[in-house]
Amino acid sequence: MGVTSRAYTDEWVYRVTNALAWGYDWLHEQLDEVERQRVCASLLARTRDIAEHAILNAKIHLFLSIGTQS
Question: What's the pTM?
């Protein structure tokens, strides 16, 4: 995934993923089916990378449940 991957620098992966999502939404009508599939595949790969890190490594889901307990 290169220099914008989470493994290389987690700051950029969030920005790239956000930009892919916004760009896909804004340009959807302008993209042909092959381009849409390419963007979706990239977005899915980046999102999985972020989710894997957040859930398996950072264990962020454990912190979310703390605030809901009385």
Answer: 0.69
